[in-house]
Amino acid sequence: MALSSPREADTIVDPHEGASNPWMEDRIAMVTGGRHGARVAVVDRDPDAVIGDVSRDEDCRRAVDETVERFGGLDTLVNNVASGDRAGLFDVTPERWDELITLSLTTAWLMIRHAVPAMTASGRPVSETAGGGAVVNISSVAAQGRGPGSVYGVAKAGLENLTKGAASLLGPQGIRVNCVQLGAIWTAMAAREHRRRSVALRTEGTSWDAAYAALFLASDRARWISGHVLTVEGGGLYRGPMHDPQGTPEERRP
């Protein structure tokens, strides 16, 4: 049965809704671009959020200050801002190049830069978690350089390198930095049936798959994990003549 593109009325249900023992209980988290027991400050241009344009250094500083003032501290930062523009490497003007790199890479650097002092001020002992906080950056399999190059892929590759470098530098302060590298999950940006058939698990990922990967890396369950890029893509793309995504395993047998 073909899967249609999501409509505005479509809902995606949390498969673990109502589970006990929240992983982020008593934590204070910031999510850019936008819980699990945490108090969450969403930084976005939406008036219902902590209002800020995270491409601007001053807005990032103010968003962190406002979160600390409103909630009493900061333990977790999730950098989720990116552009959906998949323009080719040489199909953009220098100005557009700067815009796309800023959205998918520089915003994360700015937010981490301002969040670190607030995280280290939280006073959480190293023995309780991995230390003063956790940063989770949201990347994409586009960073692997599959297919024609895109500015988006270059920016996400930079984000993954930022993750590893920041993990090394901030580790002595007790701050873990990790990354979730996403495949093509359920959105209106791709043909759903083709996407489902193109991955090894032959199932379709949703935003909950992305959220639970980020939740794990942000939580105490990942207290000894830092500098890691966790790929969430359903087992990788099919390759070779025996892996035709147009048929079922039975249909593809000779």
CATH class: Alpha Beta
Radius of gyration: 19 Å
Supply the number of helical segments.
Answer: 5
Question: How many domains make up the 3D coordinates?
Answer: 1
Second-tier CATH architecture: 3-Layer(aba) Sandwich
CATH topology heading:
Rossmann fold
On the 0 to 100 scale, the average pLDDT is 79
CATH superfamily: NAD(P)-binding Rossmann-like Domain
Helix and strand succession? EEEHEHEHEHHE
Strand content: 5-15%
Overall SS class:
alpha/beta
Largest sheet: 7 strands, parallel
Q: Could you estimate the helical fraction of the residues in percent? A: 25-40%
Number of strands: 7
**End-to-end CA span:** 24 Å
Sheet with most strands: strand arrangement = 3-2-1-4-5-6-7
Poorly predicted runs of 5 or more residues: 1-10, 238-254
How would the global form be characterised? globular
Key phrases:
254 residues, alpha/beta
Protein model, in words:
With 254 residues, the protein is α/β, with parallel strands linked by helices. It has a single domain (28-234), classed as 3-Layer(aba) Sandwich (Rossmann fold), CATH 3.40.50. Helices cover 31% and strands 15% of the residues. It has helices spanning 57-71, 94-120, 151-170, 192-197, 207-218, and strands at 28-32, 39-44, 50-51, 76-79, 133-140, 175-182, 229-232. It has a seven-stranded parallel beta sheet with strand order 3-2-1-4-5-6-7, sandwiched between helices. The longest helix has 27 residues, at 94-120. It is globular. The two termini are 24 Å apart. The model is unreliable at 1-10 and 238-254 (pLDDT under 50).
